[in-house]
Write a sequence for this structure.
């Protein structure tokens, strides 16, 4: 079981099952959405169950287009998850409490990374999207 929550602890969630396709996106939109060098994000695996356990009423959703969006805590501003419509698509890894069992598999949109970010680690880097259909959202 994976648990996480926002900076102020108003909002908590639980995932029964696993995450998949962990990646870090360095595009300007993800940098702003996560206030950092990149996003660190993983999708809820098929057959896994995501549920809010506290503070769902404090979520604010920002839908950016084509049904995709983000949800964040309206008290402290932590970006918690990616949404597709009303469905939680994946979570920002920074808000998970313990080891969620996944590792960043790739860095994407490295062509537009911040100039001050050297990008560590040995995960493959792609200037834009990787040449694979596994990535369904930024
Ligand atoms: Zn909060
Ligand atoms: Zn991005």
């Amino acid at each position: 079981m994976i648990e996480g929550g926002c900076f102020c602890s108003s909002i908590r969630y639980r995932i029964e099952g696993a995450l998949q396709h962990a990646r870090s996106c360095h595009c300007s939109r993800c940098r702003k959405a996560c206030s950092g060098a990149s996003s660190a994000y993983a999708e809820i695996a098929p057959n896994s169950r995501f549920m809010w356990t506290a503070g769902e009423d404090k979520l604010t959703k920002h839908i950016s287009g084509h049904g995709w969006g983000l949800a964040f805590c309206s008290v402290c501003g932590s970006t918690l998850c990616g949404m597709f419509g009303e469905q939680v698509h994946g979570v920002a890894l920074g808000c998970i409490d313990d080891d969620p069992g996944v590792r960043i598999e790739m860095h994407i949109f490295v062509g537009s990374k911040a100039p001050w970010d050297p990008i560590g680690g040995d995960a493959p880097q792609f200037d834009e999207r990787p040449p694979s259909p596994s990535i369904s959202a930024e």
Observations:
- Residues 2-112 form a domain with the Metal Binding Protein, Guanine Nucleotide Exchange Factor; Chain A fold (CATH 2.170.150.70).
